[in-house]
Fold this protein.
Amino acid sequence: MPDWDLRDKACIVGVGSTAYGVFPETDAVGLGIDALRAAVDDAGITFNDIDGVILNRLPYDRFAEVANLQTPFLMPTEAHGRFSAIALNMAVEALATGQAKTIALVYGNDGRSSKMKYGGGAGFWAPWGFTSPGASHAMMYRRHMARFGTTPEDLAHVATAFRHHATMNPNAVMQKPITIPDHQASRHVCDPLRLLDYCLINDGGVAWIMTTSERAKDMKQKPVYVSGYARQDDFSQNSYPADDFWYPALQKVATQIYERAGIGRDDIDGLMIYDNFSPTVLFALEGLGFCKQGEGGAFVRDGTLQLGKGRWPTNTSGGHLSESYMQGWALIVEGVRQLRGGQVPPERQIANAKALQFLLATPVSASIILRNDA
């Protein structure tokens, strides 16, 4: 739609997540159902109240059967992490058009115990034989370094900030503090990216419950409103590393997101940035206008993204780099808990958080603004 007229019309009223790690005794469906149980309990509803389901990385028919969800609206989505944002927007539109009244969005991943490989194998369109996401991002960052003068050490400021937040998160997989020298001493996986620049592949489940703002008034939890959403796809360089860092697409998102949400960038209290690899944090910050293009490395130095130090506390759960790679879904849960207040340890709470922004830099570039007051 040309004008996004869905501001604050839908909201998140329940969130749930499992532990993250290696759980060979279950599978993605079991993890997803555990997360959904937690989200249903959080929302104060029952499974019978759910009349819409959006699933990610889950077999829709088996999940619906095991969870006994007989709904008029059920939608599976592709496995890519970009679908964390896409699924949320799908739910907003389904609620607005009356296709469902209470939608469960569920993510389940048993990638660690099933030894999932991201890259190679069947299902990858790679005409040049280039299937490694890590290598692709390494080449993109190498170009960024050559063009703008950013350095590998700049990425250390991203990894250490997120690890600092993970030390305050009992559910984070990695809780040992790291320093800039620790990052620089970690082994290269694909130069210039080091081990600590890579996300953490683990088993886990995440779920959200969404409904209309009107129905949310009678719910157990204070609603967190979806105030704005914007998206721009660019698959012109999908088969090889994008030499523009998705900047034009992200710029288009930036021109829309704040107008749609009715607030400005300076009204945002914290960020949740999709961090499959640390360079994407810089690409997202530049593309969405938090700094000029090429200045992302300088922007993140000296604690800009760290709670208690910088203006933009980011990925306060530890993110994909230190909590677990739940492909954006757990970042939304962290944002909801932050905006509710009192649901994360006090030392991890963003003070007086009223609005948070989700940033996604991939071939599908997107952003979401969540608020705790319509």
User: Anything to note?
Assistant: The chain has twelve helices and eleven strands.
